[in-house]
């Protein structure tokens, strides 16, 4: 019970700080020139392999805007903030209650391991969230392309 209060206190203080910073970074990436806040690229989706590089980027950006519209844009940075603050708070609690007291390497490695594992999990969840919207955007793109080809052929006749 003694370890619960420092763990909760460290977590919430770090969570507030890291969530503000991560949402600001995420929002900056969303507003930036590429308008794609996600950490995934077209190489993560085999469905995009048949398109040109510019079409891949455009379709992925449109899917990203639809998948993370509204309040959902904050879900990924808040998950990153929870992961980072939780791993640091857990490490500090381990240190304060005597587990790994004298080992700086263990204290440094625990947050790094949690961060690597968390980034991998977040990336997988983001891909899973984007895939249905990506398929919808591909269908829209195929429909528009097919319509423009049909319209172009009719105009030549």
Task: Explain what you see.
The protein has 157 residues and is mostly helical. It has one domain. The protein is built from four helices and no strands. The chain has helices at residues 4-31, 53-67, 75-97, 104-156. α2 crosses α4 and α3 (75-97) runs antiparallel to α4 (104-156). The longest helix has 53 residues, at 104-156.
Rg measurement, Å? 22 Å
**Total beta strand runs:** 0
Which parts are unreliable, with pLDDT below 50 for 5 consecutive residues or more?
A: none
The overall average pLDDT, rounded, is 78
Strand content: under 5%
What is the count of helical runs?
4
Which structural class matches the secondary elements? mainly alpha
> Could you tell me how far the N terminus lies from the C terminus, measured between alpha carbons in angstroms?
82 Å
**Largest sheet, if any?**
none
Number of domains: 1
Task: Specify the overall morphology.
Answer: elongated
Helix-strand topology string: HHHH
Helix content: over 70%
Using brief descriptors, characterize the structure shown.
157 residues, mainly alpha, 76% helix
What is the fold's blueprint, element by element?
Layout (H helix, E strand, L loop, with lengths): L3 H28 L21 H15 L7 H23 L6 H53 L1
Short description:
With 157 residues, this protein is an all-alpha fold. The chain is 76% helix and 0% strand. The longest helix is centred in the C-terminal third of the chain and has 53 residues.
């Amino acid at each position: 019970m003694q370890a619960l209060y420092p763990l909760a206190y460290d977590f919430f203080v770090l969570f507030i700080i890291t969530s503000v910073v991560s949402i600001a970074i995420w929002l900056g990436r969303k507003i930036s020139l590429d308008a794609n806040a996600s950490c995934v690229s077209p190489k993560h989706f085999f469905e995009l392999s048949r398109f040109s590089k510019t079409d891949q980027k455009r379709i992925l950006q449109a899917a990203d805007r639809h998948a993370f519209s509204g309040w959902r844009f904050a879900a990924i940075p808040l998950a990153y903030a929870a992961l980072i603050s939780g791993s640091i708070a857990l490490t500090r609690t381990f240190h304060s209650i005597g587990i790994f007291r004298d080992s700086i390497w263990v204290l440094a490695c625990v947050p790094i391991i949690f961060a690597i594992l968390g980034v991998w999990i977040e990336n997988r969840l983001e891909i899973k969230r984007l895939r249905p919207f990506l398929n919808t955007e591909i269908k829209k793109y195929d429909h528009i392309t097919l319509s423009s080809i049909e319209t172009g052929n009719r105009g030549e006749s």
